[in-house]
Amino acid sequence: xxxxxxxxxNWKTVNPACTHSVxxxxxxxxxxxxxxxxxxxxxxxxxxxxxxxxxLSPEDLVTCNVLNGGCNGGMxxxxxxxxxxxxxxxxxxxxxxxxxx
Length: 101
Fold this sequence. Notes:
Layout: H1 11-14, H2 31-47, H3 58-64, H4 76-86
């Protein structure tokens, strides 16, 4: 089986509507929450051809996902279990504040 993998790929060119800005986790070890929220929001945007284009809340994952350690880090498996069982709210509903203090 031969894979046709391109030599280069620019996400911003291919899917400009589904490209989001870089976010700041501040002084909290919440990179796991930001990357998980971004992964899901990108998948939703792609799957719906841009019809569902929402910023999801890393704060939801940091403060509500008791399977992970909040600002002390998290694991992908536990995060996917939480997202599957509980879902996630939008950033408008629960803005990020964990890195503030």
